[in-house]
Amino acid sequence: MRLAAITTGDLQDLADRLLATGRDASTIRNTFMGLRALFRRALVRGEVAVNPTSGLQLPAVRGQRDRIATVMEADALLRALPELDRALWATAFYAGLRRGELMALTIEDTFTEEGVAPCITVTRAYDPQAREFIAPKSRAGVRSVPVTQELWGYLAAHKFQLGRSTGLLFGRTETMPFDDRPLQQRADRAWRRRGLSRITLQESRHTFASLMIAAGVNAKALSTYMGHASITITLDRYGHLMPGNESEAADLLHAYLASERTRAAGAQSGAH
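RE: above sequence
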């Protein structure tokens, strides 16, 4: 479309469609950032009479609003899914891959060797807008993610059902990535029938982070598994879930001080 032909209604329809298909609020806002800049410049240059991005009603981004499933809830959500979709969602829950990384994952990227723990190797992603496979945004995006025995069971069963040893692991075909919209819609229908609250792929990634933290995985390791460019990103995003925050902090410090004083007193009495 020509810039001058685009109306606020066109853009609002786009925003509403993105929200209806389960896109994250921040993703929707980021989608319009470049368009806003484009129209501001076009308005200054006299190429358009009005800026159709003005007055758009976009979903609000609220801090730490993301849904995180508990262990038992994740189990129930996976059991309710169509069998062919379970391994994909399990990989989001228990390996924390991004949507584009799940789309680009191949059978060869999931492997195990004798004496070596199973893992998933992430080397690329898929961009649905550009319809092409792309390199990770940073070097940290290329990584190896450990796989639990439970997740490996889902992956092994899925690969057996595929009946092939190469190509996309979760693709519609060996070379065509899955479409996340019908994937989410199938899941939503299955969860509604069981009375379960919906969750998105992005929120499943957040669930993975919360489970790793609850399991005692340190922030540096978690940052690596999440593919974050810096540990600062991990701490900013998930620091509120880590032990020793808010009400726990004083208790942890108190316990540490008490143990150090007890240890010092013991050493002193032993010296006497």
